[in-house]
Design a protein that fits this description.
164 residues; Arc Repressor Mutant, subunit A; two-stranded antiparallel ribbon; 8 helices; 62% helix
Length: 164
């Protein structure tokens, strides 16, 4: 099996493990934090999507829905800032959630040029299911990180803040 031609999004956990165990040399990538973060994120997202059973409700959708839930009436711009997405990726995300009946979009009362967001009843139900899945899913990384979780998250936030 030639794992080098399989895109990361299509790799199974077994394939990823085989790649790490194979004789394929990654060179400097072995020590590049961003590359290793992406590998961990890809693995986490794949498992989350698989367990959700809902192809349109992926971790990015979950994050957006959680932020909207915690901030009903926020604008698309505020959502983008909160989840670190630009307008070109937030707009299709919101359109997708709207199309699936999970979020409402309304003009802001303060500025009709801005769109405010709120989860629908279906969105709230879907979020509760996803929240349970996310908490279950997070048990594996929690077990790996252990008592250092707070420190680990603080380091990840520092990386995100300082290189932005």
């Amino acid at each position: 099996m030639n794992l080098r031609v399989v895109p990361p999004a299509k790799r199974t956990p077994k394939m990823a493990h085989e790649l790490r165990q194979s004789e394929t040399k990654l060179g400097v990538l072995d020590t590049v934090i961003g590359f290793n973060l992406r590998l961990a994120q890809d693995a986490s997202f794949r498992v989350f999507a698989k367990h959700s059973g809902e192809p349109h409700l992926k971790p990015g959708r979950f994050a957006a829905m959680m932020v909207i839930h915690n901030n009903p009436g926020l604008t698309q711009m505020d959502l983008g800032r909160a989840i670190a997405h630009d307008k070109s990726s937030v707009t299709p995300l919101i359109q997708e959630l709207h199309r699936h009946g999970l979020v409402t979009r309304r003009p802001s009362k303060a500025d009709r040029r801005r769109i405010t967001l709120k989860l629908t009843a279906s969105g709230e139900k879907a979020l509760q299911v996803l929240l349970a899945l996310a908490m279950e899913h997070d048990r594996k990384p929690d077990a790996i990180v252990g008592e250092r979780k707070t420190e680990f998250i603080a380091l990840l936030r520092q990386i995100a803040d300082r290189i932005s």
